[in-house]
Amino acid sequence: MRDTEVAYKNVVLIPLAAYDEGLYAAMLIVREVNGLQRASGVLGHFSGPIEARQFALTYGMAEIDDRAPGAHAALRQSSGPEGAMLRCAA
C-alpha cells in the first residue's frame, strides 16, 4: 500500500505497508534529490496499515536525523528489524 510521500529535509520518504500473513509489514523508500532511491527491508509487523506506515515514516525520519528510532521502536511487533539498513534500489 503506497499513498503517501513526505518531503523531509533533503529527501522524500515513502512509507509502505504490505499485507503479510495476517499483519502489515512496514517498509520504507527514501528518494534522494538526484532521484536515487534506497529501500529498507521489513522494519516490523503491525495490526493495521496506518500503524505500519507511521512506524516506517518515524523510522525514516530518525534514520535521516542519524538518531535511533527511540521509544517508537517499542511499537514494533516483531523481534527486531530484518534488514533495517537502507539499501540502494537504483
Provide structural commentary.
This protein has 90 residues and is an alpha+beta fold. It has a single domain, classed as Double Stranded RNA Binding Domain (2-Layer Sandwich), CATH 3.30.160. Helix content is 18%, strand content 34%. The chain contains 1 helix and 6 strands, in the order βββββαβ. The chain has one helix at residues 49-64, and strands at 6-8, 11-20, 23-32, 37-39, 44-46, 87-88. A hairpin with a 4-residue loop joins β3 (23-32) and β4. The longest helix is centred in the middle third of the chain and has 16 residues, at 49-64. It is elongated, with a radius of gyration of 12 Å. The two termini are 20 Å apart. Mean pLDDT is 80; it is low at 70-90.
Features:
alpha+beta; Double Stranded RNA Binding Domain; 90 residues; six-stranded antiparallel sheet; disordered C terminus
Topology:
Layout: E1 6-8, E2 11-20, E3 23-32, E4 37-39, E5 44-46, H1 49-64, E6 87-88
Antiparallel strand pairs: 1-2, 2-3, 3-4, 3-5, 4-6
